[in-house]
Amino acid sequence: MNASPFIVTVTTETFNQDVIEASYQVPVLVDFWADWCAPCRSLMPLLAKLADEYQGQFILAKVNTDEERQLAAHFGIRSLPTVQLFKDGQPVDQFLGALPEAQIRDFLDRHIGKVADSLVVSAQRALQAGDLSGAAAWIEQVRTSDPDNKWLQVIEAEFKAASGDIETAEAMLERVPPELHHDPEVVALRARLRFASLLRDAPAAETLRDRLARDPSDSDARQRLAAHLVVRGDYEGALEQLFLLMTKDRAYGDDAGRKGLLAVFDLLGGQGELVSRYRSRMMAALY
């Protein structure tokens, strides 16, 4: 019995379920081996290590060809070890022999993607859950396994932002690879940082509301209140405040109201009913 949830021993009876059907959900790497095959015995622990490291990005299926001769004959296995990759019910690639680890990683990455990318996703999930120590551990794994990963700078900037170091996060975001400058995730992070920076030493939201009640022309209070609302996830409330800022005081903060509206649009992915409604209002007010 395999201890890893990412490794299965396959027989003729279970091949359809464990390989063919499973490959519609996740790639399945089938290792055809035999006990008498010395290269098979050296390759198997390496494949098992990679299966655990890739954390479910592929399933490793082991086929003992001495016991499952029918399977080996069906797939034309003539030398051992033979390793085939199945996707969507079909074998799409293979390699023969006990390749070095680097070559196997290259083989997997051509079809699956770099393991470091999944580590970045794990770090993002930890940050979303408020688990800073967990996120730091995932980020360290990315640095170790793929220090040139293009997403490393982005996730490190997100970590700094979540830790409250907005200034460092902004500086790091400016150094992301050029091909990511206009990526929706990077654009949204840049927008979040814009509002987070407005809350440095800012009064509480209720204090800002009181200031606006006393003086509706207090543009500083309106802009910072909008930033509070963005951080809370009240995007409609933030858009309304920024729209009022734009229409009442275009000169404030070098057109801060209009630029703030655009930043919230970026945060929301540039689409959706809320974005469409406020973009129409903004254009009507401007032109």
Would you mind describing this structure in some detail?
Belongs to the thioredoxin family. Keywords: Disulfide bond, Electron transport, Redox-active center, Transport. Residues 1-113 form the Thioredoxin domain. This is Thioredoxin. Pfam families: Thioredoxin (PF00085), TPR_19 (PF14559), TPR_20 (PF14561). This protein is of the alpha/beta class and 287 residues long. The protein folds into 3 domains: 7-111, Glutaredoxin (3-Layer(aba) Sandwich); 115-176; 205-286, Tetratricopeptide repeat domain (Serine Threonine Protein Phosphatase 5, Tetratricopeptide repeat, Alpha Horseshoe), CATH 1.25.40.10. 58% of the residues lie in helices and 10% in strands. It contains 14 helices and 5 strands. The protein has helices at residues 15-21, 38-53, 69-74, 101-111, 115-128, 132-145, 152-162, 166-173, 184-198, 205-214, 219-232, 235-248, 256-267, 273-286; strands spanning 7-9, 28-33, 59-64, 82-87, 90-96. The protein has a 5-stranded mixed sheet, with helices on both faces. β4 (82-87) and β5 (90-96) form a beta hairpin. The radius of gyration is 27 Å and the shape is elongated. The mean pLDDT is 93.
